[in-house]
Amino acid sequence: MTDISPQTAAGKVLLHFAMSLDGFVAGPGHSMDFLSRATNRPGLVQEYVETTGAILAGRAGFDSAIGDSRPYGGAWQGPIFVLTHHPEDAMPTPDITFLSCPVQEAVGIALEAAGGKNVEVFSPTIGRQLLQLGLVDELDLHVVPVLLGDGIRLYDAPGGEPVHLRRDDAEPTRTVSLRYRPDGGAPDCAGG
Ligand SMILES: NC(=O)c1ccc[n+]([C@@H]2O[C@H](COP(=O)([O-])OP(=O)(O)OC[C@H]3O[C@@H](n4cnc5c(N)ncnc54)[C@H](OP(=O)(O)O)[C@@H]3O)[C@@H](O)[C@H]2O)c1
After folding, report:
1. From the CB of 125, is ligand 1 less than 6 Å away?
2. CA distances from 3 to 40, 140, 142 (A)
3. Which domains does the chain have, with CATH numbers?
4. Chain segment 47-85, per-residue pLDDT in tens
């Protein structure tokens, strides 16, 4: 059973994240442990392997997560661009291009390299900048059943204006109802 239609390749700029219910895409210290109990809808990885033409990431994501590993467990291959103000001290990596340019230029370079497929933005910081510039076509989010309470937010813009979104279905402004129960129980009380 799936709750949404499969991803399509259409030269889109996508923010694609697994996110905790309270809006974090990584825990403190860039921890991704919150994904360990999560399951994906069937075929999700294959959808993204087929529809992604290029990836645009930020330097923190490269240093903490991408490094030697590759998206989708190595099943996807293609150009990866990493935006940084300091390309000179990045670990040289053969298939990764470090960019130091305005974010709109970086996304243009990634779109060109994607050859008509989608550009996936793997950075909430870059995603925020692109949203504020009106350069995001879609947010594709997978809500993981966990509350983190701390970490890196999907959209961190204190004092900023709300960014209104439309759901990709027949009722674009309808709220989504989610019902959960705590899984794991309360910690034992110490002492008597
Ligand atoms: N849950 C998920 O599905 C998912 C997916 C992808 C990533 N993530 C996580 O997201 C986290 C990274 O996100 P983040 O937003 O904190 O960091 P980030 O965007 O990866 O890195 C921030 C850095 O990117 C560079 N940067 C950003 N905008 C720039 C610009 N306009 N010009 C030049 N350089 C720019 C800067 O690097 P310099 O300081 O070098 O200048 C900045 O310090 C990681 O923990 C990663 O694992 C989660």
Report:
1. yes
2. 12, 12, 11
3. 13-153 (3.40.430.10)
4. 999 999 999 999 998 887 666 678 888 899 999 999 999
Tell me which residue of 12, 25, 6, 17 sits closest to 110, measured CA to CA. Answer: 12
The residue whose C-alpha atom lies closest to atom 18 belonging to ligand 1 is 58
Pocket test for ligand 1, best of 70, 83, 121 (most atoms within 8 A of CB): 83
The DSSP output letter for 35 is G
Q: Which atom of ligand 1 is nearest to the CA of 25?
A: 1
Claim: this prediction has a pTM higher than 0.85? yes
d(CA 2, CA 169): 14
How far is residue 38 from each of residues 18, 33, 63, 167, 169, measured CA to CA in Å? 9, 10, 24, 23, 25
Q: Whose CA is nearest to atom 30 of ligand 1?
A: 103
Q: Which atom of ligand 1 is nearest to the CA of 17?
A: 3
